[in-house]
Amino acid sequence: MDRRVLALAFGLLFIGGCSARVVTVSSGPLIRVEGQPVSIRCDVNDYGGPREQDFDWEMSKDGKGKTIRIISTFDSAYSDSSYSKRVASGDISVVRLQDNEVELKIAEVKPQDAGFYICRTPSTDSVISGNYFAQVQLTVIPNTLKVSPQTPPAAVPEGSDLTLSCNVTRELNYPTYLSVTWLVKKGGTSEEILTFGPQGEVVTGSKFSRRYADGGLRLVPGRGGTFELVISRVTTSDQGTYECNGTEWTHESGGTWTKIVEATKEMGTVSVTPTSHSLIVSASSSSPSSSSLMLSPGNTLTLLCNVLADNLPALSLEVSWLADGREIITLDHSGLLISNASSNGTQAKRGEASLVKTGSGEYRLGVRGVSGEDGGVYTCRVRAFIEKGGRSTRGRWHMAAEKTSSPVTVKVSEIKPNFTLSLAASAKPQKTGEPLELSCDVSKISHLPPGGRLGVSWEHISLPDGGTNAPPPKLIGSLDGYGNLVSDSAYKDRMDSGALGLSRVAPNRFRLRFLRAQKIDMGQYVCTVSAWSVSSQGDVVKAVEYKSSPLTVQWDTKSPTLKILAKSIRKASVGGATFEMSCTVFTENVGDWIGYAVYIQSQETVGGSVKTLMSLSPDNVVQHTDPNRRDNLVLSKTTPEEFLFRLAGVQLSDRGYYWCNVTAFTKQQPEQSWTTANHSESNKIPINFQENGPSFSIAIHSDVSSVYPWDTAKMECSLGVSGSSPKSGTAHTQTEDLAYAVRWFFTRLRDGQTSQVVSVDRFGLTTKKSRNSSSDVSVERRDANTYILNIFRTQDSDTGEYYCMVTPWYKSASSGLWTQAGELTSGKVFLSVRMAVWESLKLPLLYGAAASLGVGLFSVLLGLICAQCCCRSIVHTPRSRNKLMDLEMD
Fold this sequence. Notes:
Strand 4 and strand 5 (68-72) form a beta hairpin. The longest helix has 34 residues, at 837-870. The strands form twelve sheets. Strands 52, 54, 55, 56, 59, 60, 61 and 62 form an eight-stranded mixed β-sheet that branches. Strands 21, 23, 24, 25, 28, 29 and 30 form a seven-stranded mixed β-sheet that branches. A six-stranded mixed β-sheet has the order 11-19-18-13-14-15. The chain has six domains: 3-141, Immunoglobulin-like; 146-273, Immunoglobulin-like, CATH 2.60.40; 276-412, Immunoglobulin-like, CATH 2.60.40; 418-553, Sandwich (Immunoglobulin-like), CATH 2.60.40; 561-687, Immunoglobulin-like (Sandwich); 695-835, Immunoglobulins (Immunoglobulin-like, Sandwich), CATH 2.60.40.10. By secondary structure, the chain is mainly beta.
């Protein structure tokens, strides 16, 4: 059967509404350029019949007369003979975009293609309504677009401006518009810089938007279609091949801008010469022929720095003078003068320095009142900055280049002071803790200028520790030319406390004194004496310094010893009694300030695991390892070398061996921190007694192993007592002499995790753990030896194994005190919570049946309404078309 007949038949069968067909084409009129591709879209909506529609394209020169068939989506032989060759070659084609939308394409439009293009859709509707064709006018104009760029300079210096000129024109015979675009190509990829037009707007590329906003890109429209783009302050990143693009646009109905033709011309390749290639920095003195300069103390030093560069006016310069690699003065690129002539620490102060700009690229350094410290190698360092962005922005700079001049050597002639040093020990300790005093004498002093002063610094080198490398020297402290005391941080605490002293006992004698020498003070000592003179500006500067020969200080040292003696003060013979033990410390060669850290340790058997019960720090701070026994344990210091330990309410679990572990600490001054001297352990004191108390047994029982949800489950934990009564000694136990701490545990069936459910201590206080289930628990004591766990409103999550753990307590027959027995663990019982299938399913089944019945009734009612409103007899028979058959249907 013919395809169109089938389409019509299916359209009549499935049409369900009364709609009007709408055929639309691209908004016109369309203006296109000769030789350019053209595409015209056509779509149909609100139609009946099959989803996929066919389209016929025709063309009329005036829109009224005879039409010429171009191409069809249904009939391959539809084209007129004047178009058949172009259709066969692909110059004219139709592309289906959707079931109801196609696009007519002309690869290269010709002047004779101008006219009215008609899109027709064959009828597949049951009722003819709406429009079945639409047309649009196409105007073909000649290509008159011309792009004529001006070749830019092949090389521009960094920091200068680059002007890109391009001429874009066309013959103004039709209402078309122009735009011009500048592009730069780097590595085969072109990046858009800026576009002007087609309606006078400016659009920048993503990488150039901020630069345009800052004024770094400026558009200068000219006359006769000439446009200029100025790139301000170019950098090396701006080099590349520049292109100019001209585009002709048409403004179609609906406000749409359409590009109809474009042309791109290469402007030329531009390279940016880096500032570092042309920057030249030179330094000179008043004697340009010599690279060195000799001055006398108090003279003025004058040096010149000359800067040359191709783009010098576009650069902002930072000029610095350095002496022996150290920066002494800087004139930054904003004009701020920064002077670093004054050094810190023990180095002397240089002469007064100044730096001024005397001309374009010329800077002069002046140093008045030079001294020996001003001698050295001088260099001029220049950093060239280029401002980012355009002239509308200020303050964003980047450094383009940095150059340093050749050195100029400056020498200051002066006669330095000379003297001789001798270092001796005026007081040498025989053992640790005795005073140590060293004397540094200066003799044969010559050439010390008037007003000159002497300063000293002391260094200590520790004794070798057996390694191959000698320890580095450590500065103890110094007295500078002003008489100021400067101490190193390692000795600051001892110097502030008075344990260490530096002094000048005579103009030419210095003393170092340790009030109590320590073992770490042994080693070699060196004194360094410096001569200071007064400069012409009144500053004290260091002229020269000499070191003494090292002096070794050493004495015999004895290692500290520590012995601990433990004695039993009160023995614990029955449970609940009090145990007391004293520990006495005996020391030798420890020091004057001694502190002890005491740890009370125990073990059940010899060789067993050791645990620490409590401790006492050297500052008398007590710490307990078991907070639950804080009230039973006491550790106190009775004398400076004796400590007392007390354990009240001894239990069977406390039996074992007890001793003191003592660590001795020492320090030279009360304000200093403690230093470990030695540690030792005392002898062991046993706690051993026999208690003939009752023996206990435990059992767990449950009446049922499975329950239904929301039922109550009960589990019984029973205790059996055998042996003599704790107090009376008979087989009959008294309830007031026994107490139990009971804990219930639960192992979940799903994940196997065990958690505590509830607990009751021996005083009857109940503690419940937080639960994720809606069920609840309680503990009921049925009699003296029976506890019942109740689980109310059981849920599926309560399924699992349950067991109880009990800790008995009884009163000792001998002392009448409470004694803790060993912990008991019962067996396990399994509880299963069964699901009632019918009870859980009857409501969902009832709701489902009711919902299904309601949906069925609603569907029948909706069908009747649709049949009455929308279904009626079809009066019109659609017209026949070529290759379609008339089809009648009841």
